[in-house]
Amino acid sequence: MYSKTIPTGFPKGFLWGGATAANQVEGAWNVDGKGLTTAEVVKRAADRQKLTMNAVTQESLQAAIADQTETLYPKRRGVDFYHHYKEDIALFAEMGFKAYRLSIAWARIFPKGDEATPNEAGLKFYDDVFAECHKYGIEPVVTISHYEMPLGLTLKQNGWASRATIANFTRYTEVLFKRYKGIVKYWLTFNEINASTWGFMGTGAVDSDLDAAAQTQLRYQALHHEFVASALAVQQCHQIDPAAKIGCMLARMQTYPNTPNPADVRAAQLQDQLNLFFTDVQVRGEYPEYMNRYFADNGVTLQLAPDDEAILKAGKVDYLSFSYYMSTVTSADDNIEKASGNLNMGGKNPYLKASDWGWQIDPVGLRLSLNEFWDRYRVPLFIVENGLGAADQLTADGKVHDEYRIDYLRLHIEQMKEAIKDGVDLMGYTTWGPIDLISASTSEMSKRYGFIYVDQDDDGQGSLKRIRKDSFDWYKKVIASNGEDLA
């Protein structure tokens, strides 16, 4: 008789915490030698339904460089984590964080991206941040490139469209691995690497003057350069600090067929393949066969160096991390009703509720994704982004009653527990974002995710005072009970 004990809860040492990105929290965009980044030349959206993160032209780029203010470019100010990091990390520690996922601003280390030596002031800042984390027993989980690169590399070689950027990146990663050996145990190479197929935010390449076919070609070639750079960084990390673990990161787009019509089922299968393609390369170390036809059908011809395939094979990641916010519906019919979403648009699911921003809320979809990842890859999984963006309001007595956020997170954590019972190896969960920050897609402040309210509006006005929301105490209780007390 076959019998095996089924896990009943989260494993010991589970990495509970929260996640942020340098370009959305740090501010101090021109302090201590830091260079301008690609994130800091993207304007705030005038309409929150019209995302701006890829709306960059040569003209808008030059205008942004000439504008030395923060007014139109909120990521330049963030929420001033640069000067508030001790206060913010202390609040994370008060909640009981086991891990804090943050990113390093590449342009703090190499201001233009191609310098021979790093900027010591930038390295010292992260020395201090990591020391503050360790003071409270919090493990830093560090993203090496989170939707930003030195703008100098865009101006010089159009970002990741150039193979030369690989060497710039690996010089940067070597500095990080040597500097933070024994200090950072968990690394990620690129945040939501699939965003590179949507344009500037992921590639740092201006392609607005190209037609659709040429854009597609450029973006997949840029992505290939990122794959190679990631694989080389994995090898560097393993050599420099064998005790560290390094993973990839995907924006998971769980998709369902709109109907049982085989045409809809096939359309959904293709969308799923196009989402999992990125992790197929980074976890399995090779391009999957189904992409051969996709590239042929879309006129994409990748330029590979002779050693690239061997590099990908040798640079397989140790774990798979991903963001999960919503699911989508796919149909063979282009006239299907659309819903808003994270980075891309899909069909509207009539069985699901939606957030204030129209993102459909689907906790069961998280369990489905966890199972699919585990069945497909058999490597540890790490949910490094999941959360609810909402229009939080302060009450007259200075409180934020965000029971809707508690409900959202509770439902997703319950499905994580179910996935663990299914046999999934889940190593951690860092919510997005533990403190209010600037939105990646619209650069607004009104879309709030945090357990901690930051007194700042879309125009940058406010005291920057940090205020605990109701969800702060709830998450503290969740962590203390290792996910058992969700009431």
UniProtKB/TrEMBL annotation:
Pfam families on file: Glyco_hydro_1
EC code: 3.2.1.-
Active site: 385 (nucleophile)
Stored InterPro entries: GH, GH_1_N_CS, Glyco_hydro_1, Glyco_hydro_1_AS
SUPFAM superfamilies: (Trans)glycosidases
Gene Ontology terms, MF aspect: hydrolase activity, acting on glycosyl bonds
Domain of life from the UniProt record: Bacteria
EC category name: hydrolase
Transmembrane annotation, as ranges: none
Keyword Protease in record: no
Record keywords, A-Z: Glycosidase, Hydrolase
PANTHER family, per the entry: 6-PHOSPHO-BETA-GLUCOSIDASE ASCB-RELATED, GLYCOSYL HYDROLASE
Family: Belongs to the glycosyl hydrolase 1 family.
Protein name in the entry: Glycoside hydrolase family 1 protein
Species lineage: Bacteria, Bacillati, Bacillota, Bacilli, Lactobacillales
